[in-house]
Amino acid sequence: MSADHEIDNLLHEERHFAPTATFSAQAIAKPELYEQAKQDRLGFWATQAKQLHWHKPFTRTLDWSNPPFAKWFDDGQLNVSYNCIDRHVLAGNGERTAIFFEGEPGDTRELSYAELLHEVKKTANALINLGIKPGDRVAIYMPMIPEAVIAMQAVVRIGAVHSVIFGGFSADSLASRIDDAQAKLVITSDGGYRKGKASALKPAVDEALAGDRCPSVKNVLVVRRTNQDVAWVEGRDVEWSQAVGEASDEHEAQGFDAEHPLFILYTSGTTGKPKGILHTTGGYLTQAAYTHKNVFDLHEQTDVYWCTADVGWITGHSYVAYGPLANGASQVIYEGTPETPDWGRWWSIVQKYGVSILYTAPTAIRSFMKLGSQIPNEYDLSSIRVLGSVGEPINPEAWMWYRKHIGGSHAPIVDTWWQTETGAIMVSPLPGITTLKPGSAQVPLPGVSAAILDDDGKELGRGHAGLLVLTEPWPSMLRGIWGDPERFKETYWARFEGKYFAGDGAKWDEEGDLWLLGRVDDVMNVSGHRLSTAEIESALVSHHFVAEAAVVGAKDETTGQAVVAFVILRQNQLENAGNDADVSKILRDHVSKEIGPIARPRTIIVVKELPKTRSGKIMRRLLRDVAEDRPIGDVTTLADTSVMQSISGKLAGGAND
Ligand code: PRX
User: Fold this and answer.
1) Cβ of 201: how many Cβ atoms within 10 Å?
2) Per-residue pLDDT averaged across 590-610, rounded?
3) Peptide bond into 431 cis (omega under 30)
4) Pocket of ligand 1 (CB under 6 A)
5) How many folded domains does the chain comprise?
6) Ligand 1 probe mutation, 504, 517, 521, most atoms within 8 A of CB
7) 576 pLDDT tier (thresholds 50, 70, 90)
8) Could you tell which of 265, 392, 520 is best to mutate to test the pocket of ligand 1, judged by most ligand atoms within 8 Å of the CB?
9) Cβ–Cβ under 8 Å, residues 437 and 16
């Protein structure tokens, strides 16, 4: 069956799930939101912004006089950490649990809002004592422990800017990100627990900073989590327990301009160099809080919310570190992997804490589905009221399984489409309002304007597929790419004048619901993580075995896409290495070391030539056909049409996996 047929089948989804009257009656989101936003979009966003505490109220909602550089609420001042913590304590909710922490080994810790405030104030003072000033960049490379959130909150509390780097990235990736942002401080830990073992983090920081690779870094602040032995650089490395322990617990949060930078988060683009996506203060928090409350139907006094994302990704920023805290939610943070000690771990956590809102990724749902419903069925999941999905399209089968076996056949599922760049959810059903349709992200949220265009920029209507764009600025939009305003303009705003091009294909179905069809550029999505084909190709060719490489994302049942690399080897280098060299393993390990384990190719296919057009561009479309085991498409534009025969012949002979 061709990909087009599959899409068409998807789009004729006939299962619809209307909200129940009981759910709608108590739902946070009211249908009027759509109407209000439509009539006065800016007024609508101003109303949402006013839910926050402003040290100095804003009078201007949006300045779009110099597109694509937007300014939201720009004459106002606020403090993100004050909004996320202090104001709940001041409102008398200091006793409410902010964080239920579950360590992978089974240790637990509970932090009330008052306790979180105490920790964040002390940490803020520790940072000040280390010389961190407003605007300074601080890199954070941490496991999922409360100190990760405390560190983020403390950094932004003093007006500094964090760059969180996912713990699965290698020392090289870490170094290039630290250097690009010119970070002054790195906050890390000795390690964290993953898959039943203590897994080290500090050695990667040491390697990243070795020699003079990152001269901007003055100190490394180290949390002890696993008590592994770690190397220690006197004068540079500082114990968290000491620095934070000795710091004062008094810290008054000052207001910063709404457009003051909040954080940088690196993400993969279509070139080998990751982009530092920049977000600022007022607009980001406004939309993170608004979407968190309305999309997840948060009743902060009674709900227990759990988002399984790591703080190293945007989801862990907007829907762990900021949105839930801004709304005064009680949330679970889990350190480890879903299979430790067994595949029932997540469901035991739901049962133990009475999780009522669960937000996770389709790749996880598909892994659980494969193992069978008997595992979740052993647990009491009756507390679940709302389920969320993010990171990639969710196939209707996985959606139905999620609803039935995790959601007790009643919990609404919100399939939320957004990106690192959008900062917060843009397209999603609203529980209690939207009639749900498995597999579709459905409708732009109130306040969000999306369209689907053809290649010439013509707007398409129902029943048509094209390119997804956002037609109006939104509060949590990226403000730029760190240090590269030109790349910001070219990447997102050049394709269609005045419109943000997201890089995703999408289709309106006949009922006006939106379906995401995957990336249309050379960005892959593996387990909901963004990877660039160019970045992996450049890692591969940096190995002396490799003359040339082409990488594609091939469909994978569990991870959505998988990295498949086609490589041409340097015969002489190979001969030097001896005949028994396991090329596939060596190259997969090499990518893992260069970028991180998440980028490790699933399959390496050794070929003699790559399919190229006469102008020398690699035709990935054809390689994808091979990797997905499909008949090969049109080869007439190839410089040498016999290349594909030799590649697919090679594959028939067995790819080395
Ligand atoms: O292709 C879309 C996919 O993930 C991309 C954004 O990746 P990232 O910046 O890492 O952020 C992931 C978490 C927000 C998008 O361009 N994507 C994200 N959510 C969905 C999705 N694709 C389909 N459906 C979704 N719900």
Assistant:
1) 22
2) 93
3) no
4) 267, 314-315, 390-393, 415-420, 441, 502-504, 516, 519, 525, 530
5) 2
6) 504
7) confident
8) 392
9) yes
In which element (H, E) is residue 118 found?
helix 113-129
Please state whether beta strands 108-112 and 275-280 pair in parallel, antiparallel, or not at all (unpaired).
unpaired
Q: What is the pLDDT of residue 326?
A: 99
* Closest ligand 1 atom to 502 CA: 16
* pLDDT one-digit tens code per residue, 16-31: 999 999 999 999 999 9
In 3-state terms, what secondary structure has residue 201? coil
Closest C-alpha to ligand 1, atom 26: 417
- Protein residue with its CA nearest to atom 15 in ligand 1: 419
Q: Is the pTM of this model over 0.85?
A: yes
614 within domain boundaries:
yes
Q: What CATH number does residue 140 fall under?
A: 3.40.50.12780
Q: Residue 657: which pLDDT band, with cuts at 50, 70 and 90?
A: very low
Identify which of 266, 279, 363, 417 to mutate to test ligand 1's pocket (most ligand atoms within 8 A of the CB).
417
Tell me, what CATH number does 641's domain have?
Answer: 3.30.300.30
* CA angle in degrees (0–180, nearest 5) for 88-187-283: 45
Two tokens at 519?
């990336």
Q: Mean pLDDT of all residues in the chain?
A: 94
280 within domain boundaries? yes
* For ligand 1, atom 4: residue with the closest CA: 391
Q: What's the domain range around 588?
A: 527-652
Higher-confidence position of 445 and 9: 445
The predicted structure's pLDDT at residue 579: 66
Q: Which atom of ligand 1 is nearest to the CA of 309?
A: 13
CB 170 within 8 A of CB 593: yes
| Alpha carbon of 418 to ligand 1 centroid (Å) | 5
**Whether 497 and 544 share a structural domain:** no
pLDDT of residue 9: 58
Distance CA(62)–CA(524), nearest Å, equals 33
Report if residue 613 sits inside a domain.
yes
- Considering the domain boundaries, does residue 435 fall inside one? yes
